[in-house]
Amino acid sequence: MKTRRRQSAFSLVEVMVAVFVLSVGLVGLARGITTALVSSKEAELYNQAVDVADNRLEMIRAEDLFSDGETEGESGLFRWRQTIAPAGIDGLHQVEVAVERSGSSGALYRLRTFLYLAPTETTVDGMRDPARERGRGRGDRRSRNARAQRPS
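Above: the chain sequence. Below: its structure as tokens.
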């Protein structure tokens, strides 16, 4: 007597469906990885632009004798433009630093703040006193730093 055994194997249709599902999954995975890499690069550029603006602002603070107006420059891959304008109160200035990527238009990052520079004072003989223009003399700077370091 002949017994028939059932053969277990994949049909061509089942293989084609499995290959299609696998290919759709791989395309989605590749697209997700590409999107993640692009987003990571954009975030890195944005963080670098923030650093450029912050460094520019610290340079303005370090100069201690800044003047109103607009200045431009470059730093690595970025162009920056700083604008210093009076804020309506004696000694208070509005500072804006805009950073954009070299070769492109539109700011990647804008930093706006206010800085205070004591109004210009003159001495008895009519000459300007640079220490007073900065709002402090040497002794004032030491005492201010001492107060800042004292624990509360």
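The chain is about 45% helix and 20% strand.
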